[in-house]
Structure formats: structure tokens, C-alpha cells
Amino acid sequence: MIWDIWVRLGHWCIVLLVAFQLYSGENLDLREQHAWVGIAILSWVMFRIGWGIIGPTHARFSDFIAGPRAVIESLKRLIGKEHDPAVGHSAAGGAGILLLIGLLGLMGLTGLVSTDDVFYDAPLNHWVSGAVAGIATEIHGLAKPALLLIVLVHVLAVLWHQFALKERLVQAMFHGRGSAVDHSITPAMIRRGAYLMLASATLLLGSLLWWGQF
Ligand code: HEM
Ligand code: HEM
């Protein structure tokens, strides 16, 4: 086992929720649902940052954050159809994943203060001036093509691994098994993940109920 249940479940939930966000962001009738799903994604981002610090070995940022040189080396190997020696995310994959987590965090945060100026003001919109809300809404919209681009590169890279290098990455994101065993994935660690997820969601929802306008 290299991918614990929270990494795997989180990944496939995020895929579905992000697809819903891309659709509902444009749809005036789905503003409320868009906001709630956005809040769910933001609490996953909070969880994933925590899991990147206190989670199992291959979920940790220290396992896959690498400097620019390592990222370039990893990209060269990828293009040259060479297998990456990394057991978890490769250096290049890790860079893409950080971008995805960062962009989803940015979209979640800017979403909280944004407004469509007609039907819907997000829960923390009253916190900021009209000018700041305008800039946040602008950033929220501009992040969309960036997200689409990174998701596209991510999926193409995964497909390249899957078909050109014959590595079964997609299956591994379902069953969790890889070329090695991560002994830090224990029942106690999985419980820790559940508490972390509960804490992230409670912190975010509690703050929004306290400071927000629903
Ligand atoms: C909205 C679209 C997507 C987003 C936001 C996304 C995001 C992510 C993130 C954040 C990770 C890191 C997982 C973690 O460590 O917690 C990841 C890994 C991964 N994703 Fe996606 N993903 C998307 C779509 C897809 C799709 C459609 C596939 C299947 C073709 C896919 C296959 C994978 C695989 C195989 C990994 C593991 C890569 C590795 O072994 O290093 N993803 N993705
Ligand atoms: C974290 C994940 C999120 C994603 C991926 C996302 C994505 C999007 C997208 C693609 C649009 C359409 C932008 C455009 O075409 O100009 C949009 C619009 C919007 N989103 Fe989100 N969103 C997220 C979170 C949130 C949250 C948490 C809220 C509020 C609580 C929110 C509130 C809004 C509003 C009010 C608009 C309409 C803005 C306008 O009229 O220009 N979003 N979002």
C-alpha cells in the first residue's frame, strides 16, 4: 500500500466536485450549491495541507516537494519514457499536485468573498469593500482557465505514465497498492486522518457560521 484511503477517496471526490464547480460556476440557479461544494473543496484543501505534514510517508509534502533541478530531471525522464525512481509522486508530478492544491485553495478563498453583483453575495462578501470583492471575483474567474490547463496537463501526464510507460497509476489511485509498502499507513494513522478531516471541516464551517452571512 502506498496511497492511504484518504488520499484516494479525497482524489476521486475532488475530481467529481471540481467538475461540478466548473459547471455550476456559470449557472445562476446553482449559486448556493456552488458555494457549499466550494466550501467542501476548501475544507479538503485544509485537510490535505495538514495531511501533507502529519500524514503517511508518501502523502507528505517532504516526500514529493523537490527543487527546480529535480523537477526538470523528472520531466526529462518522463519525456524520455524512463521510469521515475520515486515510489510516491515524482518530482514533476508533485509540482503539478502542489499547483492544483494551491489553485483550489485560491479559488475557495476568493469564492468566499466574491459576488456576481446580481443574485448572490458569498458568505464573507460583507467583510470586504466592493473594490476588494471585485478583485477577488476577478481572480476567481481568471483562475478557471489556469485550473483547466493544469488539470489537462495532469491528466495527459497520468495517461502518458499509464500507456507509454505502462505504469498502472490510475489503478493505484483506486486500490492504493504500488511498487513498495508504506509502513506508516496504520489503523492509528487512518484514524488520525479522520480526526484531521473532521477538524478541518469544523474549523471552516464554524468560522463561516461565526463570521459569515448565510
Ligand atoms: C478535476 C480534476 C483533477 C484534479 C483536481 C486532480 C488532483 C489531483 C491531486 C491533488 C493529486 C494528488 C493526490 C494526493 O496526494 O492527495 C492527484 C494525483 C493523481 N491523479 Fe488526479 N486530479 C484530477 C483528475 C484526474 C483524472 C481524471 C485522473 C485519471 C485519469 C487522475 C489521476 C491521478 C493519478 C493516477 C494520481 C497519482 C499520481 C501519482 O502517482 O503521482 N486525476 N490528482
Ligand atoms: C474551491 C473551488 C471552486 C471552484 C473550482 C470554483 C469555480 C468557479 C467557476 C469556474 C466560476 C465561473 C467563473 C467564470 O466563468 O467567470 C465560478 C463563479 C463563481 N463562484 Fe466559484 N468556485 C469555487 C469555490 C467557490 C466558493 C467557495 C464560493 C462562495 C462561497 C464561490 C462563489 C462563486 C460566485 C459568486 C461566482 C460568480 C462570479 C461572477 O459572477 O463572476 N465559488 N466559480
Structural class: mainly alpha
Count of discrete structural domains: 1
Report the top-level CATH class. Answer: Mainly Alpha
CATH homologous superfamily label: Transmembrane di-heme cytochromes, Chain C
Chain oligomer state? single chain
Rg from C-alpha positions?
19 Å
CATH topology: Fumarate Reductase Cytochrome B subunit
Total beta strands: 0
Helix fraction? over 70%
Name given to the CATH architecture: Up-down Bundle
On the 0 to 100 scale, the average pLDDT is 96
- Proportion of beta-strand residues: under 5%
H-E order: HHHHHHHH
Given as residue ranges, the uncertain stretches (5+ residues, pLDDT < 50) are: none
Bound molecules: protoporphyrin IX containing FE
Largest sheet: none
Looking at this protein, list some descriptive labels.
214 residues; 8 helices; Fumarate Reductase Cytochrome B subunit; 70% helix; 0% strand; binds protoporphyrin IX containing FE; mainly alpha
List the helices and strands and how they pair.
Layout (H helix, E strand, L loop, with lengths): L4 H20 L6 H24 L6 H4 L3 H12 L11 H23 L16 H35 L4 H7 L11 H25 L3
The site of one protoporphyrin IX containing FE has 20 residues, from helix 1, helix 5, helix 6 and helix 7.
Description of the molecule:
- This protein is mainly α and 214 residues long.
- It has one domain: Up-down Bundle (Fumarate Reductase Cytochrome B subunit), CATH 1.20.950.
- Helix 2 (31-54) packs across helix 5 (91-113), helix 4 (68-79) packs across helix 5 and helix 5 runs antiparallel to helix 6 (130-164).
- It is 70% helix and 0% strand.
- It has helices at 5-24, 31-54, 61-64, 68-79, 91-113, 130-164, 169-175, 187-211.
- Bound molecules: protoporphyrin IX containing FE (2 copies).
- One protoporphyrin IX containing FE (HEM) is lined by residues 18, 21-22, 25-26, 34-35, 38-39, 41-42, 104, 107-108, 111-112, 114-116, 120, 122-123, 137, 140-141, 144.
